[in-house]
Structure formats: structure tokens, C-alpha cells
Write a structure and sequence with these properties.
The chain is α+β, with helices and mostly antiparallel strands. The chain is built from 20 helices and 19 strands. A hairpin with a 2-residue loop joins strand 8 and strand 9.
Length: 614
């Protein structure tokens, strides 16, 4: 967004003041007209950094644009180094809590693990104790960790999570899907006694409290004892339970003694907003998680640095290891600041491979989930847009994506479809269909050129609301040839929108994104790959459906023109008025005569032709 003097009449004064600003490192303090501090920042070069806010024609992110629009004046403090500026910035932000800096509130409550008091107890996560006879384990500061632990225990020990009441509902109904996919032991089948079930619940609680290693040791001893007592069926069940625990331990991220005490931080952005998730491991287990809404999005590296500084400003201590999903602006300086603040070694890393990447992925998924609730989108949709933007080098995820496809049968009935995806979902009210008018022979490049010219011609006319929204990204169903054909068209029309092609493999499946001089693979970006595949399948469906409908109407029209006195235009009038063959067959002679503007005798002959149509 571009800042102008109309947005802030104080800009000429601010530019003049900044022209005399020192090039030394330091901190700048932005104030509004009431003198209230609204933003505090640091700079390696004060002159260059502050100038970037007030420069004419400067394109700002929405959050920065809002801040600059409200700046009435600013102060600055010169420091001896950029690191000193960082320390001062953190101190001043904590003191003044400016509106446009990232400010975090920690308002966490408590959660408990509840073991219900009934013949067949259930293990579940609850937010507070009830005045009942159930057993409660806790409190825990993280509802996320409690839910994850309970889900893991119920899954490993195959405890029922359905709404059936036992023993009342034993053998009353068929086992549910969870039993058939081995997610439930099947208490409802009557094959488990109350004592054996309670033993499994007790083992699950020990698993939650002590982790997999101790659970395996105890269960192994029980299995061996059962085998010695010739209780082979019980021994087999314990053996399967041990195998389930060991398998879960390989993939689960809740309890892992190999993970050092650490915080894992990831930030998710969707169009114009952002949020962060922090996952905390202590003593080899996930102990807590916190989510923070960050408001307007910003440049990823800067946002990560600002969040880390804000987050640890309110913490009395930090673990030795901090894992980040995104590289901050200056990781070395950030690390130095944390070491001096806490007076012990702190290592800030951005994992690129290995099992630690799974932890940053977990944090990222949680950030995506948190923001998806905020914007009313699923986590996959949020992740798909973010991954796509990253793959294409876009500053932010595209809100509106337009995709085009050409469909024809040789050189007849040539058409095009345009689909629009808004925030990762089809926006069908903005779909458009085009009949090719200027291209007489099959030529997909020429057809695509006509469609793009007509689409943006309507945009500049401003008469059709359906064409009024300029997309953030244009995709063409085609390879580098299509991209290289349409790029000059957009340049000539002065439309500045990122343009890419969608490449299919020999089986007509999405394979890659064409850039014009190469391809971008999405095989490692699963969410983006799924989104692009959905878009490509949808635009193909729209184009081919329209092409078939037009071909059918063309054949229908040809039948009508067999009647003397009914030409192509009159046939089209009839098809447009009645829309379907069934409706046309129900039309009376008088209705046909009125719509087509023909004589009664011609209308009667036309009626006979229509009635004979299959």
C-alpha cells in the first residue's frame, strides 16, 4: 500500500526532519498527534531506516501503512552499536507497550486429565474439576498438551471414545468403525471383563504419567507372568499393547526423552493477518503450548525476530535451545541478546533436516490451525496458500487466484473457463465462461490471448462487477508456451499480476508450475500441490462442461434451422428463451411463433420437428 500526503499531511515535515538524521545505529520512537508512542524500532542506520517509512511512493504492508498514517512526529536515541539498540528497543517496548509493536498477553488457564468413576472408566481432558467422584490428574498449564496426551493414551491402549455406556450397551449394537480399524478394543462385543478393562485404563494412566519406556517395562513383566501362568490369551493382548506403545513412541511427539529442553516457535500468515505458536518441551515431554494472534502480517524474518523478542521479554527464563521455523532478521544478535538477558547459554537454530524439523512442523501446523479458526478456513487451506506463496516467491499468500483453461473440439465450439479461488476456496459467483469470437482455427495460444484481453478489458471498463476484482495470482492451464504468450499481453495492458502455468503429466495430473523459462516442483509442498491440483481440476471441469453444453446447443440449433423460415438467429432466440429441449417440447405453437417471430404455419412445422427430436 502506498503512503501519500493525503494519508498523512505531516509527511513533508517528517521527510525534512529525516533528511538531517544521523546514520548511526539507534532507536526511533514514533508518536501520534496526542504525543502517545505508537511504535518503537531499532536501526543499524537511523537515517536509512526512518527514511524508508516516509519516502514518496513507498509501498508498505498494511500494518506499516496504518502506523505511518498516524505518525505526527518521532524521537530517536543514538547508540554505539546495533546490539545496544536492540537491548534498548526491548526495554522501551516493555515499558511503553506501543500499539503497532507485537504485544503478547499470557492468559492461560489450567487443564486436567479426568478418569471417570464408573464400571468402565473413561480418560478425557477437561478444563476444570467438577464436584464429583472422578479422579483428576493435574493441573496442567496447557490444554493442548493434555488433549494430545489423552488422545495418544486412548489410541495406544485402544480405549473406547464413543458415547456408549458400559455395561448397559454391551452386545446391544454392532461394533463401530474404531473397532474395525483397531482403534478400540471393542468393549461392546463383551469380550473384555470389567477387571481387564480397568487394568488397561490403569496402564494408560501410567503411560501418561511416566512415558513409554516405563510402560513397556511393566507390561513386559506382566506379559511374562501371564505366559508362565498359561494365560496365553492375556499374554497375547499384552504383547500387542507393548507393540502399540513402541510403534507410537516412534512417531509421537508428546513424550520423547531424546528431545532437549526447548521452545519451538512457528508463525503462520494468511493474506493480511498472522499468528504464532510456541511449543515447549521440558524433561523430554511436551509440557505446554501457547498461541498468539499478531494482527497484521509483516515481512516473515522481521516478524519472527519481533515475536521472539516480545515473547521472551515477559519470560523469567528461557531454555538452552530455541528452535525457529523461520530464519529471523539477525539470528546471531538475537542469540547474543537472550544469552545476556538470562545469563546462560542459549542456542537459536532453524532446523533444516532430521527429527527436529518434525518439531517445527508441529508448531507450524498448530499456528496454521490457530489462524484457520480466525479466518474461517481449514488448516490445509491456510497451509496451501502459504506454501504456494513461498514456492512462487510472493510477499504474501494470494487472496484471489484466477485460473484459465481452453477447451475445444478441433476448431469448433472453442470456449474458455475462468475459475476464482478466494482464500483457498472456490468462489463460484466469480466464475466466468468465454465463447471464443476472433479465433477461427484451433490455436490455444490465440484463444488464451483473446480471453485475457477480454477479461481485463472488462476490468478497465468497470461496468461488470464480476470483473471488478483484480486477482493476486493468475494461473494458466498450460506450460511455458502459454506463460510466454500471455506475459507480453499483461505488460501491454499494464496489468501487474504474477503469472504462472500449470503443467500436467502424461496421465493428465498436475506435475509442476511453469514460470516461462522453467518449472517449479511442488512435490515437497504437499498442501500447495493439493491446492493447485484442485484449482486445475476445477477449471478443466468448468471449461469442458461449457464446451459440451455449447456443442449440444449447436447441434440442437442445427436441427431447428431445417425448418424453412428459421435461421440461426431465430434458432438461438428459441434456445435462449426455453433453455432446455424438454421446455421447448412443452411450448405451444403460439409460444414458438411469438418468441421466434415467425408465421403460424412455420410455427406448426417447427413444432412437428421439435416433437420428433429424440
Amino acid at each position: 500500500m502506498y503512503i501519500t500526503d493525503d494519508d498523512n499531511p505531516r509527511l513533508p515535515f517528517l521527510r525534512d526532519k529525516t533528511s538531517k538524521l544521523t546514520t548511526s545505529p539507534g532507536v526511533y520512537i514514533m508518536k501520534d498527534k496526542s504525543g502517545k508512542i505508537i511504535y518503537i524500532g531499532k536501526a543499524k542506520n537511523l537515517h536509512n531506516r526512518v527514511t524508508s517509512y516516509f519516502r514518496r511512493g513507498q509501498d508498505h504492508l498494511p500494518k506499516v501503512w496504518k502506523m505511518v498514517s498516524n505518525v505526527n512526529d518521532y524521537e530517536f536515541i543514538v547508540t554505539d552499536s546495533e546490539f545496544e539498540a536492540l537491548v534498548l528497543e526491548c526495554s522501551l517496548i516493555k515499558l511503553h507497550t506501543p500499539k503497532y509493536n507485537i504485544l503478547l498477553k499470557d492468559d492461560k488457564g489450567y487443564s486436567y486429565i479426568q478418569v471417570t468413576d464408573e464400571p468402565y472408566p473413561r480418560i478425557q481432558a477437561v478444563l476444570q474439576k467438577s464436584d464429583d467422584s472422578a479422579e483428576y490428574i493435574g493441573p496442567y498449564t496447557s490444554s493442548f498438551a493434555v488433549k494430545q496426551a489423552v488422545e495418544e493414551a486412548n489410541k495406544v491402549f485402544r480405549l473406547p471414545t464413543c458415547t456408549r455406556v458400559f455395561p448397559r450397551d454391551i452386545k446391544k449394537q454392532r461394533p463401530c468403525l474404531n473397532f474395525h480399524i483397531k482403534r478400540c478394543m471393542g468393549v461392546c462385543t463383551g469380550n473384555f471383563s470389567e477387571e481387564e478393562y480397568r487394568a488397561a485404563v490403569k496402564q494408560a494412566i501410567e503411560y501418561i504419567k511416566n512415558g513409554s519406556e516405563m510402560s513397556v517395562e511393566k507390561l513386559t513383566a506382566e506379559m511374562e507372568r501371564a505366559a508362565e501362568d498359561l494365560e496365553f490369551e492375556l499374554a497375547a493382548r499384552l504383547r500387542d499393547r507393548i507393540a502399540a506403545i513402541q510403534k507410537a513412541a516412534e512417531s509421537q511427539k508428546i513424550i520423547d526423552r531424546t528431545i532437549p529442553d526447548c521452545d519451538i516457535i512457528a508463525i503462520s500468515q494468511n493474506v493480511d493477518i498472522a499468528c504464532a505458536s510456541v511449543i515447549m518441551y521440558r524433561g523430554g515431554r511436551l509440557t505446554d503450548k501457547a498461541d498468539y494472534f499478531l494482527g497484521d502480517r509483516a515481512e516473515p524474518a522481521q516478524m519472527m525476530e519481533e515475536f521472539v523478542l516480545s515473547y521472551y521479554a515477559m519470560k523469567d527464563d528461557a531454555p538452552k535451545t530455541i528452535l525457529l521455523e523461520e530464519e529471523p532478521s539477525d539470528i546471531e544478535m538475537l542469540q547474543q541478546y537472550l544469552r545476556e538477558k538470562y545469563d546462560h547459554a542459549v542456542y537459536v537454530n532453524v532446523p533444516k533436516k532430521g527429527h527436529l524439523v518434525q518439531l517445527t512442523t508441529l508448531a507450524k501446523n498448530n499456528a496454521n490451525e490457530f489462524i484457520s479458526v480466525r479466518v474461517g478456513r481449514t488448516r490445509r487451506e491456510v497451509a496451501g496458500l502459504e506454501e504456494l506463496a513461498r514456492a512462487l516467491g510472493m510477499e504474501k499468500p494470494p487472496r484471489f487466484i484466477e485460473c484459465y483453461d481452453i477447451s475445444n473440439l478441433a476448431s469448433t465450439n472453442m470456449v474458455a473457463g475462468m475459475v476464482v479461488f478466494e482464500n483457498g476456496r472456490p468462489c463460484k459467483k466469480r466464475y466466468k465462461k468465454f465463447s471464443i469470437k476472433t479465433v477461427l482455427e484451433q490455436n490455444d495460444y490465440a484463444c488464451m490471448t483473446e480471453v485475457i484481453e477480454r477479461r481485463f478489458g472488462e476490468y478497465f471498463k468497470g461496468e461488470d462487477e464480476g470483473f471488478a476484482q483484480l486477482p493476486d495470482l493468475i494461473l494458466l492451464d498450460g506450460g511455458n508456451g502459454h506463460v510466454n504468450t500471455i506475459k507480453p499481453v499483461l505488460e501491454r495492458l499494464k496489468v501487474s499480476v504474477p503469472l504462472y502455468g500449470l503443467v500436467k503429466d502424461d496421465h493428465h495430473r498436475t506435475r509442476a508450475i511453469a514460470t516461462g523459462d522453467g518449472e517449479i516442483s511442488l512435490l515437497k509442498s504437499r498442501a500447495a500441490f493439493n491446492l493447485v491440483t484442485q484449482i486445475q481440476d476445477e477449471v478443466h471441469r468448468v471449461a469442458i462442461t461449457y464446451q459440451k453444453a455449447k456443442r449440444k446447443r449447436s447441434t440442437f440449433s442445427l436441427e431447428l434451422t431445417k425448418v424453412r423460415g428459421v435461421g440461426e438467429k431465430k434458432a438461438q432466440k428459441l434456445i435462449t428463451a426455453f433453455k432446455t429441449k424438454e421446455a421447448l417440447k412443452k411450448a405451444s405453437v403460439e409460444e414458438l411463433r411469438a418468441v421466434a417471430g415467425i408465421s403460424e404455419d412455420t410455427a406448426k412445422e417447427l413444432k412437428n420437428i421439435i416433437d420428433e427430436m429424440s
